[in-house]
Structure formats: structure tokens, C-alpha cells
Recover the amino acids of this structure.
């Protein structure tokens, strides 16, 4: 099933990336090529194989419930594109 | 004076053994940067003039007159350049992306903390492909870096700036990061040494993530000894990184003894078939012959799932990246498109304008393979095939001590040559990607030049946490050859 | 006939000292963005490390809710964009939650009902958005709450009325508070509840179209929100219409719901295993150690109180609704054997002191020893019960011992007949009319005279003696 422009648009919306029409078109073609390539995995028999999400056999890594210093508020906010008082500021969120 | 080598061209090992002031070294390097940086463009943020000295981080707070009181330590007074995706406190760190423009991290990466402790001087931030997405260092908001050996060619990527800075003698040592070959391939293209440690060997804390399950920080150096010294410093357990291994770190310099008699070296037959450049093949054959004279034994092995590695990689890496890069949204830091109407528009505009084309392509591919209905077909399947790829290595290492391959199937390509075909670019990582998927360590060392004077890299791969084997084999080879002494003409 | 089907999704903030994945404080009500660090802000390059106590608390709740605790659990990323979510993904658990397939028994009119717990999983809380600031086109973000550990407890849709939902919630709250892993304070947001509501014909197995109800910020609001939504759905169905699947917000002030989003805008969360955290594997021995730290839970304790102290279930229920209160009762019971009287005192005067002073039962300022001493003083007639209440109040105020209060304030009951005789004489002399009235059969008049005597003695007179002596004197007059 070829990747349609509207599918790329849906995906770009999910990823919150604005793309113009031309970009959508190019991406549909490029994604199609890449997806055709990665589709080669479908030829492989993977029944009974466990997925690897961690290549190291590590488990049970914890920290103790102990306080560590927080950032100074000025350091927290110094990179903010928009702020007021102690807050980060964003365009109004409408539910 | 003429007989004396320029200080900037020395290795850390050579510098440490000599009697001279740090001021002398720093000013030599600064002059070198002034002389060649315009051609190479290795730095995203070059060490800039600050007063009469240069804007690197001194290990101790500098006084007004910049008395160079350098902390003692194994890297005392040695300049180290840092890839622009590793956080340095209060120093702009952007991953060569517009979306992080102006971002000054309020903290140091764990590797930076260790470098400062070791007495190193932080010497600029090096250029890279945006968010480490690429194999050429062309995808950078700072513009491309050029290969010091041929300015028409790419330095490789994504740690192209780190490799080019070392090759061009603009720094002594660099740090890079490697997700699918991003240290080894540029090291090979630029004729320097680059090592990707075992996953979990070096803390990722403070490395701006591309693909969390594949990323590792590693050194790029002029020779194998410097690489071992760097690994001694940056390796080891970090409680701030849950994926960091609590395994003892040996003194890697002890492996630099040249002893490889009866070393069992595997040659994966799947790597030596089609697609390998003839000159690369010739350099490999010569390297094998050299190692044989030192007593290494070669065995053909099979890594049967090799052909699936690139596909697995581009699913796993982009999926993780799509999520890791979601935080760049213009809320807390970096670029925000201010002319937006409402929140969602602000997100889309900021990300649409802030990310470059390759970043957008990978985020969207990663989002696609994770989105509802595709997860099992792509992501889950890729993770299962990853298991098979890892097993291939486990099986192979039952019979051998290390594996040797070329680092890249071709030498450095021309700038712009692969820019329009993403898939072609992805396939240039074919020899390095499996190593990240399996989490094993690998080193790239110079093993020759093509007729066009482009360097060729030899990759050595070892078992998990057996970097000692890499150093043993790499040092043995390096001490039989003079490739590292061939410097680019700049 | 239509049947109501409700499923509840409860979020509980775990009261660890530090956040789930970093060492920032979880303290409530601090200055905005003052309890944050690169990890909980999701700054580039930062990495999460799980707080061990979070996992222990989660397992405790799972065990207390009779869940299976699988040997293997892991975290996943739930991806969606929202400004209160610093990384634009939430670290949560998807297909391998911490605990699953448990149950909770709730009290219903004639007995108990077992509600299946589908799953219990851990996740991180989001920050807070404030919409009312100086700039009306902006929202303001405070990330202090971001990264506080949350436990999500999901029931099967087996609750059939708002009352059952209320009962489920209060029972759940009481268990979790017994475990001492959360304050479960809905007003402060440490317990939050979303509901799925649908109606279906009685006997039908298939669920009807459901709506999701959010933003119910008190136990009362859950009840009224559910009642409203059921009525709304009922009206639609009875008019022959169809319920639309959507998410609704409860507006407590207006006592009505508003649409938050409809199904078309449903999320595609792109869950995948969190690569920055490694899995967690428990041996049965690990679970056993945690199990041993689980105290007697409210339902067992209630049954034991009924049996051991011969209390009515109603009384036992109140006493065991809070662990500190139950503990207080039990400690008192060691030195005071009139359990019925003890229970009456605790449920009555004692609890009203606590409520009037807005004290948490865990912060009871008086010791069981002092409290039982007070009861003994009342029982032996040293003070009367009215005075005892005054003394109790004083004890809450000053934490002084009751005998000290009595002697300092001279509150001892007057049981000296000579002293009382004088007072009664005086009262009879100045209240002739009441005396006459009583003689003429007006019982109330006696009450008035007793009242006068109590007033005169500032409530210290022994009321029984006063009554008897008054009757005697009037009869003989």
C-alpha cells in the first residue's frame, strides 16, 4: 500500500511539524522508498523471538528516595523563549 | 626551531612527556585554528577570543589575568573539543540545530565533569549533522564541515567536526557520539582514531539523545594511546544513567603492548561481498597481511542477519528519535516561532522551521513506524530482528577474539553527492550499524589511503566490555604502520 | 429498564520524599518552578532513574488490592504534546503493568460487592497550567508537580450506581491511607478520578456507548457528576437518541458537564518501551518482604473490632475508617475496658474536636493515657460528663493532663451534700413560682431548677444528686 500525502500529513500532525504541500509530496515519495526498503524484514521468520529493547541485560536500577538540590529558578527559566514571573509562558491552552 | 614539531600537531601522550607551558600549547593551537578553520569549518563554536586568551573552559575559575593554573590529572592542560550534542554548563549547546539556538544547559554532562576533573581544557564545540542525523556533517545549521584531506569531500558524520578538528590539528582530542557509526565513519574518512564503547560503558547523562538504546559517547584521537587514555577517563558507572553498567574499568593503557600472537580474528563473509570499494578492499587485504605477520590468526565467520541491520536501525533509531526530539517545542528553551496563532500552531511552526530536512524526515519516519496499526509490523518486528543480530555476534565471539571489517565501504564522498538520496546515505553506514544494534565496542583506525589521498579506516569489533581487545589489536597494528603520520595539507 | 455501568480510573500521588525519576522534592504549595531539575524539566541530555520507594509503594497497593504482581515489569513512553508535559511524552506503563487482576470489596445495602481491579500501574505526573494571568492570551506553566509519582488504578466497568462509585472510592482511599503511601486528598489533587459511564438494557452483556467524565475534584463531585451524566444519557436514550462517545468535564460550580473533546480527536499515543529505564524483575521473596510490611487493612480491622470489642458494625466502621483513629481506639482499649463508652466518646466528642479543629487523625495531640484518664474521672464522678467535654476541649488546646486542668480550673464535681444543700435552699427560695409549678405537675419546672443549680455551680454540681435533693426538698416542703 503506497504512502499517501494525507498519511504523511496525519503523521506530521502527530509529530507537530508543519510541512508545506511540496514537502509533503517529497516526503511521501522518500518515505515510500524507505518503507519499501525496511519491508524486507517481513521476509524473516521471527516466530518465538523475543524483542530486544535493551542490549544490556540490566534490571532493577534504582535510586534511593533522597533529596538532591533543585535548580535555581533563574537557571530553570534562563533559556525560556517566553516567561513571566516564575512561570513559563505559552499561547493560551484551550481544551 | 624548524626541527621541533609544532605543538598543535602533537598527541596528548607526546605533550605530557614534554616540558613546555600550557600557554605555549594553547597559543599554538589557537594560531592553528585561526589558520585552517576557515577551510575546514570543524567547529560549531570555535574557541573564541576572550580578553587576551581564548574562550574555553578552564578547569578552575579563571582570574582576570588568566593565570593558567591547570588542575593536575591525567589530561592536565590538554585541550579537548566537544561535539555540539554534549551539554557543557552555560555554553551554547545546539546539536547544530536552529531549534536549539541559544540553548545554554544549566548542567554539565557526566563526561564533561570527568574531563574537567582530569584537568582537560574544553576547546570549543564541534560541528555535526543536526541531532546526529547523518553521515556527512552536511546537515548542520552552521553549514557543512569539510574533510581536511580533501576540502571537496565530506568528513563523514555525524561527528564530522570532531574528526576533522583532530585531523586538521585544530585540537588534540575530541569527543564524539556514535549511534550507527557516527564516531567511526568520520574517524575513517579523516584518517584518525575513533572508538565507540560498549553500550553502557560511558554515561549518556548530558548527551542530547538521538536513539537512547544505541547512543554512546566516545573519543576521537590522533593515535590509539590517546584513545586509551580518554577511555580511562570517561568510562565507568554513573548512577544518573540507568543504562550505565556497573562494571569495573581496567587501565586500558595496559593493553598497549603489541602482543597479538595467536589472536583469533574473524572476517565476516557477509561484509566482504558486494558494494565494497576496490581501494578499500586493497587496504583491508594489506592490513590483514600486516596483522598476520604479527601472529594473528584469521577465521572466516558468518553474521547471517547483516543484510537486515540497516532496516532494523532505521526503524529503531527513528522511532526513539521521534520521541526524544518531541521535547523541542519552543516552550522551555530554544527556538519559538512567535508569529503563531495558538498553541498547536506554535508547536507546528516552531518545529517546522526549527528542524532541518533530515531531522523532519527521521521524526516523521519514526512517528510513522510507531503510530497505531504499524507498531507490530515495524517497531516490534525490528526489535525482534535486533535480537537475531545480537545473537549473530554472541555466536561469532565463541570462536574468535575480535572481528575486522572496513569501517566504511567507500572512502569519503563528495559534498552534496548523497544529499538528495536519503536511502543511499543510510546504506553508507552498513558496516558500523550492526555494532550499535548489538551494543558491542568497536574502534576505527587508519589503514591506508586511496590514490586520491583519502584515508581508509579499519574497524575492529570486540565482545561487550572487551575494549582491551580493541586496544591490543589496534595498537599492534598501529605500531606496524605510519598512516597516522600522514597529515592533510592545509 | 436500563442499567448504569461505571468504570473508574483513579490516579493517586504517592507520597515519596522525592519525585519518581529525580531527587526534587514533592512538597505541595511551593513557589512555581522552584522544585525542578534538568530531569523533571526534560532538559536535553537528562535521564531518569527510578525512585525505589515508588516501586515499593506501588507493589504495596497492588498486593492490598489482591492483584497479581508479575515477575517482570517495565516502563513505556506515552507520546503526546501538551505544555504541562515537559518531554512531550509521559513515562508510564503500557502492556506490562506493575499489578493486575485484583479486586476490591465494597459495602452495599445488603452486604458486599466485589469490584474487579483491572490493572495498577506507575507513571509520572504532569506540571500545572494556569490560565488566569496578566496576559489573557497566554497560559502559564509550573513544573513543580511534573515527575511526582502517580499510581493509576483502573477498575472494570462493574459499578452500577453513583453510590457504588462513591463507596468504591472511599474504600480505596481508606486502604491506601492505611498503607500510608498517599494522602488521597481530592481537594489537593493527590487523588484524582475519571469515570467511564454508559447505560445498557438490563441483562444485556454488551456495553453501551460510553462517555468519559473528568475534572471531578471532590468525593461529592464524583457523586453529583455521575448522577448528572447518567440523567443526561438517560434522557437521550429515552428520547430515542444515541449517546456520543466523548470526553466531558464536570463543572462543579454550574453543576453540569461540558464537552472536552470528541472521539475524532482521539490520541495516537505511540507507546513503546522506555529505552532510558531498564526492566524490573522481582522474585517472590522480594514481594514477600513487601507483603510483610502491609498492616491490617480496614475491612479486616472492622470485623475484628466488631468481634473483639462487641461494637456495632456502624461504630466499628467509623473507628476503622482511619488507621490513626483505629490505633488510638485500640491503645485506649488497653487501659479502659468499657469499650462501648470508649467508642461513644471517640465517635462523639473526640471526633467533633478533631473535625472542628481540622486536625488529621494522625496528628491527634493527646495521648491515649490522658484520654482514658479523663473517662475514668468522669466514670468515678470526679467530674460530670458536661465538664468532661469542656476538659477534653482544653486538652486539645493545651495538651495538659485532665487532672491538672480540673485542679487548675477548679472543675471538680460538687458531690458534697452540705455544699449542695445550701445551693438548693437558695434556688428554692428565689424560684417560688417554679417550685409551685412543679408541685402542680409541670415536669419542665424541675428541669429549670436543675439548670439553675448547674448554672450556679458553673456546671460542676453532680446532676444526679441535685435532681434527687431537689425532688426530696420540694416533696417535703
Amino acid at each position: 500500500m503506497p504512502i499517501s500525502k494525507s498519511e504523511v500529513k496525519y503523521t506530521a500532525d502527530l509529530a507537530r511539524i508543519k510541512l508545506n504541500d511540496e514537502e509533503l509530496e517529497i516526503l511521501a515519495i522518500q518515505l515510500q522508498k524507505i518503507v519499501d526498503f525496511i519491508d524486507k524484514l517481513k521476509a524473516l521468520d521471527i516466530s518465538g523471538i523475543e524483542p530486544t529493547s535493551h542490549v544490556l541485560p540490566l534490571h532493577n536500577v534504582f535510586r534511593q528516595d533522597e533529596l538532591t538540590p533543585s535548580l535555581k529558578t533563574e537557571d530553570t527559566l534562563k533559556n525560556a523563549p517566553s516567561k513571566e514571573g516564575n512561570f513559563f509562558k505559552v499561547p493560551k491552552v484551550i481544551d | 626551531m624548524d626541527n621541533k614539531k609544532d605543538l598543535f600537531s602533537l598527541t596528548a601522550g607526546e605533550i605530557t612527556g614534554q616540558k613546555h607551558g600550557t600557554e605555549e600549547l594553547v597559543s599554538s593551537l589557537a594560531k592553528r585554528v585561526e589558520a585552517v578553520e576557515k577551510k575546514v569549518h570543524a567547529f560549531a563554536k570555535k574557541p573564541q577570543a576572550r580578553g587576551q586568551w581564548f574562550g574555553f573552559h578552564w578547569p578552575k575559575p579563571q582570574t582576570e589575568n588568566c593565570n593558567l593554573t591547570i588542575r593536575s590529572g591525567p589530561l592536565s592542560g590538554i585541550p579537548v573539543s566537544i561535539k555540539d550534542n554534549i551539554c557543557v554548563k552555560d555554553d551554547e549547546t545546539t546539536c547544530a540545530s536552529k531549534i536549539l539556538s541559544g540553548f545554554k544547559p544549566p548542567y554539565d554532562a557526566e563526561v564533561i565533569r570527568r574531563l574537567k576533573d582530569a584537568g582537560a581544557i574544553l576547546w570549543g564545540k564541534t560541528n555535526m549533522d543536526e541531532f546526529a542525523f547523518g553521515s556527512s556533517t552536511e546537515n548542520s545549521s552552521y553549514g557543512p564541515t569539510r574533510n581536511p584531506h580533501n576540502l571537496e569531500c565530506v568528513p563523514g558524520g555525524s561527528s564530522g567536526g570532531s574528526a576533522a578538528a583532530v585531523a586538521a590539528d585544530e585540537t588534540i582530542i575530541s569527543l564524539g557520539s556514535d549511534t550507527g557509526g557516527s564516531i567511526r565513519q568520520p574517524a575513517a574518512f579523516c584518517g584518525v582514531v575513533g572508538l565507540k564503547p560498549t553500550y553502557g560503558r560511558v554515561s549518556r547523562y548530558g548527551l542530547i539523545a538521538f536513539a537512547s538504546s544505541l547512543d554512546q559517547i566516545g573519543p576521537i584521537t590522533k593515535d590509539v594511546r590517546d584513545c586509551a587514555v580518554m577511555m580511562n577517563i570517561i568510562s565507568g558507572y554513573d548512577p544518573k544513567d540507568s543504562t550505565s553498567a556497573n562494571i569495573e574499568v581496567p587501565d586500558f593503557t595496559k593493553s598497549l603492548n603489541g602482543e597479538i600472537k595467536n589472536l583469533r580474528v574473524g572476517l565476516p563473509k557477509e561484509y566482504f561481498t558486494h558494494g565494497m570499494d576496490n581501494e578499500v578492499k586493497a587496504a583491508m587485504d594489506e592490513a590483514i597481511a600486516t596483522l598476520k605477520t604479527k601472529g594473528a590468526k584469521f577465521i572466516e565467520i558468518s553474521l547471517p542477519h547483516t543484510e537486515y541491520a540497516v532496516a532494523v536501525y532505521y526503524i529503531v533509531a527513528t522511532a526513539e528519535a521521534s520521541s526524544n526530539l518531541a521535547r523541542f517545542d519552543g516552550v522551555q528553551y530554544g527556538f519559538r516561532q512567535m508569529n503563531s496563532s495558538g498553541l498547536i500552531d506554535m508547536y507546528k511552526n516552531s518545529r517546522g522551521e526549527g528542524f532541518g530536512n533530515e531531522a523532519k524526515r527521521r521524526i516523521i519516519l519514526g512517528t510513522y513506524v510507531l503510530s497505531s496499526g504499524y507498531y507490530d509490523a515495524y517497531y516490534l518486528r525490528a526489535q525482534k530482528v535486533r535480537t537475531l543480530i545480537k545473537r549473530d555476534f554472541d555466536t561469532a565471539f565463541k570462536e574468535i577474539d575480535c572481528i575486522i571489517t572496513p569501517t566504511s565501504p567507500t572512502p569519503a564522498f563528495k559534498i552534496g553527492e548523497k544529499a538528495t538520496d536519503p536511502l543511499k546515505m543510510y546504506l553508507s553506514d552498513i558496516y558500523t550499524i550492526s555494532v550499535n544494534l548489538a551494543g558491542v565496542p568497536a574502534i576505527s583506525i587508519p589503514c591506508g589511503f586511496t590514490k586520491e589521498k583519502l584515508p581508509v579506516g579499519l574497524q575492529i569489533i570486540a565482545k561487550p566490555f572487551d575494549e582491551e581487545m580493541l586496544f591490543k589489536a589496534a595498537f599492534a597494528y598501529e605500531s606496524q604502520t605510519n598512516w597516522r603520520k600522514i597529515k592533510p595539507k592545509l | 429498564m436500563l442499567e448504569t455501568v461505571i468504570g473508574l480510573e483513579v490516579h493517586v500521588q504517592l507520597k515519596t520524599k522525592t519525585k519518581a525519576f529525580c531527587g526534587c522534592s514533592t512538597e505541595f504549595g511551593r513557589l512555581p518552578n522552584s522544585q525542578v531539575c534538568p530531569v523533571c524539566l526534560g532538559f536535553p541530555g537528562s535521564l531518569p532513574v527510578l525512585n525505589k520507594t515508588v516501586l515499593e509503594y506501588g507493589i504495596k497497593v497492588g498486593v492490598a488490592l489482591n492483584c497479581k504482581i508479575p515477575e517482570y515489569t517495565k516502563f513505556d513512553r506515552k507520546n503526546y504534546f501538551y505544555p504541562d508535559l515537559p518531554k512531550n511524552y509521559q513515562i508510564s506503563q503500557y502492556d506490562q503493568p506493575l499489578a493486575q487482576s485484583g479486586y476490591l470489596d465494597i459495602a452495599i445495602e445488603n452486604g458486599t460487592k466485589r469490584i474487579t481491579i483491572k490493572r495498577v500501574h506507575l507513571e509520572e505526573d504532569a506540571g500545572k497550567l494556569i490560565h488566569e494571568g496578566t496576559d489573557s492570551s497566554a497560559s502559564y506553566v509550573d513544573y513543580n508537580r511534573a515527575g511526582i509519582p502517580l499510581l493509576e488504578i483502573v477498575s472494570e466497568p462493574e459499578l452500577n450506581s453513583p453510590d457504588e462509585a462513591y463507596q468504591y472510592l472511599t474504600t480505596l482511599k481508606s486502604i491506601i491511607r492505611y498503607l500510608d503511601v498517599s494522602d488521597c486528598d481530592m481537594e489537593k489533587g493527590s487523588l484524582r478520578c475519571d469515570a467511564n459511564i454508559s447505560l445498557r438494557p438490563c441483562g444485556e452483556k454488551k456495553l453501551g456507548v460510553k462517555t468519559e467524565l473528568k475534572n471531578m475534584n471532590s468525593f461529592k463531585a464524583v457523586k453529583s457528576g455521575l448522577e448528572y451524566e447518567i440523567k443526561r444519557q438517560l434522557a437521550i436514550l429515552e428520547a430515542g437518541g444515541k449517546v456520543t462517545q466523548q470526553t466531558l468535564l464536570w463543572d462543579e460550580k454550574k453543576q453540569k458537564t461540558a464537552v472536552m473533546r470528541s472521539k475524532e480527536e482521539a490520541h495516537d499515543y505511540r507507546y513503546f518501551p522506555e529505552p532510558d529505564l531498564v526492566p524490573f524483575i522481582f522474585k517472590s521473596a522480594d514481594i514477600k518482604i513487601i507483603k510483610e510490611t502491609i498492616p491490617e487493612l480496614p475491612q479486616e480491622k472492622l470485623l475484628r473490632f466488631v468481634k473483639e470489642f462487641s461494637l456495632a458494625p456502624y461504630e466499628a466502621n467509623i473507628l476503622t475508617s482511619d488507621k490513626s483513629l483505629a490505633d488510638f481506639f485500640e491503645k485506649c482499649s488497653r487501659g479502659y475496658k468499657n469499650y462501648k463508652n470508649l467508642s461513644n466518646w471517640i465517635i462523639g466528642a473526640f471526633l467533633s474536636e478533631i473535625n472542628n479543629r481540622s486536625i488529621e487523625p494522625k496528628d491527634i495531640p493527646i495521648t491515649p493515657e490522658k484520654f482514658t484518664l479523663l473517662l475514668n474521672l468522669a466514670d468515678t464522678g470526679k467530674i460530670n460528663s458536661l465538664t468532661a467535654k469542656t476538659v477534653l476541649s482544653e486538652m486539645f488546646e493545651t495538651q495538659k493532663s485532665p487532672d491538672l486542668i480540673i485542679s487548675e480550673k477548679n472543675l471538680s464535681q460538687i458531690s458534697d451534700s452540705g455544699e449542695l444543700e445550701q445551693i438548693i435552699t437558695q434556688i428554692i427560695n428565689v424560684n417560688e413560682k417554679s417550685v409551685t409549678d412543679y408541685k402542680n405537675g409541670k415536669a419542665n419546672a424541675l428541669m429549670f431548677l436543675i439548670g439553675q443549680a448547674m448554672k450556679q455551680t458553673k456546671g460542676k454540681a453532680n446532676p444526679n444528686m441535685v435532681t434527687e435533693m431537689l425532688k426530696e426538698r420540694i416533696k417535703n416542703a
